[in-house]
Amino acid sequence: MTLRVGLTFNLKRQVKPDEGLPEDFYIEFDDEETVNAIADALEKGGCNVTKIEADEEAYGKLKRLKPNIVFNIAEGIRGESRESQIPAMLEMLGIPYTGSGPLTLAIALDKALTHRLLSVNGVPSPNYQVLTNPDHKLTKKSKFPLVVKPLAEGSSKGVRSSSLVLDEESLRKQVSWVIETYKQPAIVEAFIPGREFTVGLLGNDEPIVLPPVEILLDKLPSGASPLYSYEAKWIWDVPEKPLDIFRCPADTSEELETRIRYIAKRTFKVLNCRDLCRIDMRLDEKGKPCVLEVNPLPGLIPDPDAHSCLPEAASVAGFTYEELICTIFWQALKRYNMQHLFKNRSLVKLP
Predict the structure, then answer these.
(1) Where in the chain is the domain with CATH 3.40.50.20?
(2) What's the CATH code, domain 4-99+334-347?
(3) Is 3.30.1490 the CATH classification of the domain at 125-190?
(4) What is the DSSP letter of 167?
């Protein structure tokens, strides 16, 4: 039997002037190059792949095609739980899929819920406050410097160099901009001043932690805030003119790397992530790792010059791009007891 695989995605496009959307609205969607590379990898594994754009027509297409399993990279088209849209449809239709479930995806997109859940489970994360209007008073725990972000966005959407605020005036201006631009509350977080890392994980019951990637914020352009911002990710660092701001594996002591790996695994378990995940963290004043964000739907861009951190870390760990995709796929198949249907086991690197 040849596995019939649906590949669900949202295709990146330019914002049109009449859409009334933020300029970065589509930035976390995928290019055709990524969609095609994932399809090619799965086809090398012996699968028959059908690409399905995750738009308003997706439910009907999935219901009609009824694939054996879906490889999901869809970000969703709108709303605070948009990343859950395709997984929720698939669960309604009884179709297996890769990656985390609707609840995990919804929680991870909401930064305040993520911090709250991690904190009660003993995972360090920043002190925060949610502001629904620019005039809300800060709590006594909110001390400058602070970082202002949209509450429920990914891929550094709404995180600009100006998001690091040092005083009341800058704070109010940035909170106003976030609320007006993204039509959602702003989250104001304590600024964590130390080194920044992003950590990829693959698997389920005992996920492996890929080599941590350090983001060398001191290599950003002069005058930039020490944030991995929208400008840093999408404007200053492009394949045509890449910034040399990534180090993988990160240069850490054995003790620090052990701590980073422990916190990454603990975070993965607390949020009930599946198959793959990427976790961003920084070191606090005492050099202890603190989780900033959790991305259970991380980018899988094949171009190494694009600095897609999970594929970059997987490459350092010895994975080819095809092996990375097929290993993620294999982990999902195993969860559904379908692994015997995958034809090319040689492309799978984890048991």
Answers:
(1) 4-99+334-347
(2) 3.40.50.20
(3) yes
(4) S
Other C-beta atoms closer than 10 Å to the C-beta of 83 total 27
For 103, other C-beta atoms within 10 Å of its C-beta total 14
pLDDT number for residue 18: 84
**Residue 321: strand, helix, or coil:** helix
- The structure tokens 């010059």 sit at 305
Q: Write the CB contacts of 269 (distance below 8 Å, at least 6 apart in sequence).
A: none
Gyration radius of the chain over CA positions:
20
pLDDT tens-digit map of 197-217 = 999 999 999 999 999 999 999
> How far, in Å, CA of 157 to CA of 170, rounded?
19
Q: How far is CA 187 from CA 28, 46, 124, 132, 213, in A?
A: 20, 45, 17, 9, 25
Single pTM value for the model: 0.95
- Which residues of the chain are in CATH 3.30.470.20 domains? 196-318
Query: Which residues are CB-contacts of 351 (< 8 A; sequence separation ≥ 6)?
Result: none
Neighbouring-strand partners of residue 11? 30
Core vs surface per residue 107-124: b (16+ CB within 10 A) or e: bbbbbbbbbebbeeeebb
Q: Which tokens in the block code for residue 299?
A: 């980018």
Between CA 340 and CA 144 the distance in angstroms is: 55
